[in-house]
Amino acid sequence: MAEKARSSKALMVLAVVAGLAVAAAVVYDFWRALTVNPENPWAEFTLSKIFFGYRNLMFAVGAVVWVLGTAIFVLELAGRTVTRRGLERNRMGVAEWSVIDVALAALSAAVYGGLLAATAPIVFVPGFTWLRPANALAPLFGMFFGIPGCLGAAIGNLIADIVGGFFGVGSFGGFIGNFLIAYLPYKFVRDHSFSSASSIGEFYVWGVLAQAFVSATYICWWLDVAEALVGLPLFVVWGIIAPIIFSNNIVVNAVLSPVLGRVLFPLIKGRGLYWKDRIKAAQV
Amino acid sequence: MGPSSVVVKDLYARYAVSESWVLKGVNLAVGRGSMLVLMGPSGCGKSTLLYAIAGLLPWVVPGEVKGEIVVEGVDVARSGYRGLAGVVGIVYQNPEMQVVTRSVYEELAMAPENLGLPKEEVMRRVEWVVEALDLERYLNRDPQSLSGGEKQLIAIASVLTMRPRVLLLDEPTSMLDHKGARLVLETVEQLKREHGLTIIAAEHRVEWAVEVADRVAVMSDGAIVMEGSPEEVFSRVEDVERYGVRPPGAAEVAYELRRRGFEVRVPVRLREAFEVFGL
Amino acid sequence: MEALSLGGLYVERKTPFHELDPRAKIAWALLVLAASVATQFDGLKALPVFASTLAALSLSGLGAGLALLLIVNASAFLAAVTLVWAGAYSSQGVLLLALGPLRLTDVGLKVAFGKFFLIMNPVLAFAALFASTRPYHLMWALEKLGAPPKVALTFTLALNLLPSTVKAVREVTEAQVARGLALDRGSVVQRLRNYVPIIVPMIAKLLSDVWDLSMVLASRYAGYARRTYVFEPRWSARDTVFTVLSLLLYGGVAAWGLAPWW
Ligand SMILES: Nc1ncnc2c1ncn2[C@@H]1O[C@H](COP(=O)(O)OP(=O)(O)OP(=O)(O)O)[C@@H](O)[C@H]1O
Ligand SMILES: [Mg+2]
Questions:
Q1: Which residues constitute the domain of residue B57?
Q2: What is the DSSP letter of A157?
Q3: How would residue C261 be classed by pLDDT, with cut points 50, 70 and 90?
Q4: H or E element: which one contains C102?
C-alpha cells in the first residue's frame, strides 16, 4: 500500500517535472532558433520541425483528434458522457441546465473573452508576442464549473475572435479546441483542488501536456482541411500556428494555472459553485 | 387588514454552504395591496426571506427551506419560482447585473418574451409600463449608459411587464446616490398608490419607510422581532435601538427628550414632529 | 497596456446595413467568403470583393478605416503568409523580382494577393455583420439555425456582458498598476505571474455576479417557455434586392475567378 502510494507520488512529481521541463525547453528552443536564424526562426524551431516535418502523421492524428473531440463536444452538450461502462447520461446536458449553469457559462465566456480581448499578449522574445495569460483560465473553468465552464471557454474564445476582428472559418477550430482545453482536465483530473500531489500531477498530464497537443492538432487539422476556405499555407499551419498554440498552452498553463487554481478553488467551493458540490446538492 | 396576499408560517431557511439556519422561524402575513418594509442590520436575513418568498431559495440558490409560504394562493414551497410567473416580481440590490440586454425596450420585453406570450401582448405590456412609469425618454438609450437609479427603474419596469400582483424589493436603493434613490422610491410609492400592488421591501431609508409603509417588520438574527405600524414599531424606543435600527430623525429627538425625563409622544413622521414639538 | 480594437462588437447606429435582415447579412458574408474562395489564385479578381467589404464597413457606420486597422494589427502574420504563398509559386510565370532567396513572379504575386484577400475579406465581412447586428438578432438567428436555446442565450448574454467585462479588466489593471504592478518586468515566468493580481479579482467578481445573474434570469423566467421574439426580423423587399444584387456581384466575381481562360 505504502509502496503503491510512494510510486504514484513519484509519478506525479515526474508529471510536474515533465510539464515544466517541456515548457522551459520550448522557450529556450525558440530563443535558440531566433539566435541561429533571426530572419526565419521557424525553420530552426524544433516544434516547427516536428509538426511540419511530420505533417502527414500529424494530419492523421489530427483527424482522429478532430472526430473524437467534435463527437465529445456534441455528446456532452447532449448530456452524455463516455465512461468505462460505455455511454452514460449525466445531468450536465444543455437541456437540463438551470439558470445558474447559463449564468456560469455566460460569465465564464465574458471574462475569458474580455481578458483575451483586453490584455496584450506577452512579448517573450522581442518581436514575438503570443503568450496569452488569459488562456490559463480555460482548464480552470472546466475543472471548477464542469460542462458550463467548458462551453464558457469555447464561447469566450469565439467572442474574442469576433470582437478582435478575426472571426472566420478558422474560428470553428478555436471554438471546440478551447472546449477541449477545458474538458480534458475536467474529465480526467480526479482531484480539482490543486492542493495534493495527485491533483497537481494529473493536472500537468491533462491540463498541460495533453491539452496542448490536443488543442494544437484539433485547430490545425481544421485549418489544414479547410485550407481552400481559410487561405493558410501548410507551412504556416503546421510550422507556425501549431507550435505557437502548443507552446503558448504549455507555458501559460504550466506556469499560471496551478497558481491561480490553488487560490481560486477554495473561493469557488466556498461559494457553492464547484460542479461536484452542485450535482450533489441537486441530488439531495 | 384585508385578505392576505403573502403568508409565511414558521419558516426556516439556510443556504447549502451555511453552517446553521439563516431564518429561524419567521411568521408573516401581508395584506393584499399593502406595503411592508423589512428592516434590520446587515446579515439578519432580509434578502434570504425575500428569496424564499420568491421561490428562488432553494430553487435557484441551493439550500433548504422548511415551513409554509403561500403567495396569492400559490404554495411556493412546492412550486418554486416557476409557479409564481405573473404573480411575483423581484428586484435586487445591484443595478449593474440587472440590465442584461443592449436596449431598454429589449430589457422591458425580456420577461414576457420568456413567458412565451404572443408578440402583440408583449408589446402591449411594454407600452403600458412605458406609459405608467413615464419611460419614453429612455427607450432610445443604451442601458449601459444609464445611471444606477435609472437602471433600477428599468429593472422594476422589467418585472412589471409580467403584471405581478406582488412586488419584492431587496434594498433597491442601497447602491444608489440620493437622486437615484429618490427616483426609485417615488416609483415604488406610485406603484402602491395607483396600481394596488402588494409590496415587501427591504429598505434602510427609515424616513421614507415611515411615510409609505403600512407595516414595518424588524428582523434580527433570522427572526422577526418587531412588527406593526410604523408608529407602533418606532415608539418602542429601547427595542428599536437594541436591534440596531436607526430610528427616524423625528423620533430620535423625542427619544433623547424621554431619556432626559420628558414624557413626550414619539413622532415618527416629520409633520407629526412639528405637532409634538409645537412647531 | 495597448488598447486592442474591439472591431466586431455591436455598435448601435441607424444605418442601411443595420436595418437589413440578419439572414440577408449572414448570406452576404457567406457569399463574400465564396467569392474570395473562388478568386484566391488571382488577387486582381478579388479586388471587387475587397471593395465591397469596405463599402459594407462604411455603410454600417464603422468606417473603412477599420479594415486598415485590422490589417495593420495582423501585418506580421499577413506578411509571413503572403510571402510563403508567393514563394510556393516562384517557379511559375515571369520573374519580377529576385531578392536573395525570395523570387517573386507574376503568378506568385497574384496568388499572394488572392490569399491575402481570402483571409481578410471574410474577416471584414463578419466584422461588419457582427457590428451591425444586435446580439438579440444573433440569438434569434442562432436559434433558427438549430442551436439549443440555452446555448444561444449564453452566447448572447456573454456578448452583452463583454463591454462591461472589458471595462472591469481595464479598471483592475489600472488599479494594480497604480499600486506598483509592472506587467512587462521580469522573466517569462515572472511576466506571466504578474497577471495573477488581475485575473483573481476578475474571478472574484464573476463569483458574486453568478448569483445575481442567475436570480435575474430566474425572475425574468429565462428558459420558461418557447421564447417570443418581439423584434422578429421581417424579410422585406430591401432584403430581397440586397441579396439578389449580392448574388449577381459575387456570383459574377466567382465565375470570373473560376474561369481558366480569363
Ligand atoms: N448566497 C448565499 N450563500 C450563502 N450564505 C449567504 C448567501 N447570502 C447570504 N448568506 C448569509 O446568510 C445570512 C443572511 O444574509 P442576508 O443576505 O439574508 O442578510 P441581509 O439582511 O439581507 O443583509 P444585508 O443588509 O447585508 O443585505 C448572512 O450570514 C449571509 O452571510
Ligand atoms: Mg440583503
A1: 4-247
A2: H
A3: low
A4: strand C102-105
CB pairs under 8 A between A and B: 14
Exposed e or buried b for every residue in C157-171, given b needs 16+ CB within 10 A? bbbbbbbbbbebbee
Residue appearing with cell numbers 520573374: C95
Angle between helices C75-88 and C65-73 (to 10 degrees): 80
C234 contact B CB<8A: no
Is residue B36 domain-resident? yes
Which residues have C-beta within 8 Å of that of residue C101, sequence separation ≥ 6?
A: none
User: Is A77's Cβ below 8 Å from some Cβ in C?
Assistant: yes
Q: What share of chain C is helix, strand, coil (3-state, %, to 5)?
A: 70, 5, 30
In the structure grid, which three cell numbers stand for residue A44, read together? 530552426
- Domain assignment present for B269: no
Pick from B23, B46, B173, B218 the residue to mutate for probing ligand 1's pocket: most ligand atoms within 8 Å of its CB. Answer: B46
The residue whose CA has the least distance to atom 29 of ligand 1 is B43
The model's pLDDT over A219-276, given as tens digits with 9 standing for 90+, comes to: 999 999 999 999 999 999 999 999 999 999 999 999 999 999 999 999 999 999 999 9
Residues of C in contact with B101 (CB under 8 A): 135-136, 160
SS (H, E, C) chain B: CCCEEEEEEEEEEEECCCCCCCEEEEEEEEECCCEEEEECCCCCCHHHHHHHHCCCCCCCCCEEEEEEEEECCEEHHHHCHHHHCCCEEEECCCCHHHCCCCCHHHHHHHHHHHCCCCHHHHHHHHHHHHHHCCCHHHCCCCHHHCCHHHHHHHHHHHHHCCCCCEEEEECCCCCCCHHHHHHHHHHHHHHHHHHCCEEEEECCCHHHHHHHCCEEEEEECCEEEEEECHHHHHCCHHHHHHCCCCCCHHHHHHHHHHHCCCCCCCCCCHHHHHHHCCC
Of B90, B115, B119, the CB nearest to C230: B119
Up-side HSE of residue C89: CA atoms within 13 Å toward CB?
Answer: 23
Instruction: Decide if C262 touches B, using CB distance below 8 A.
Output: no
Of A180-189, C7-16, C140-149, the least confident = C7-16
Closest CB from A99, A270, A281 relative to B62: A281
C166: closest chain A residue by CA = A114
Please give the distance, rounded to the nearest whole angstrom, from the Cα atom of residue C216 to the centre of ligand 2.
15
A87 grid coordinates: 455511454
With respect to residue B274, please indicate whether it lies within any of the assigned structural domains: no
* pTM for this model (two decimals): 0.93
CB–CB contact C164 B96 (8 Å): yes
- Residue found by looking up cell 419614453 in the block: B136
Instruction: Determine the length of chain C.
Output: 262
Bridge pairing between strands B198-202 and B35-39: parallel
Number of domain units in chain B: 1
CB atoms within 10 A of CB C242: 19
Closest residue, chain B, to A98 (C-alpha)? B60
Q: How far is the CA of B203 from the centre of ligand 2 (A)?
A: 9
Buried b / exposed e over A181-208, threshold 16 CB at 10 Å, is: bbbbbbbebebbebeebbbbbbbbbbbb
CATH code of the domain in which B158 resides: 3.40.50.300
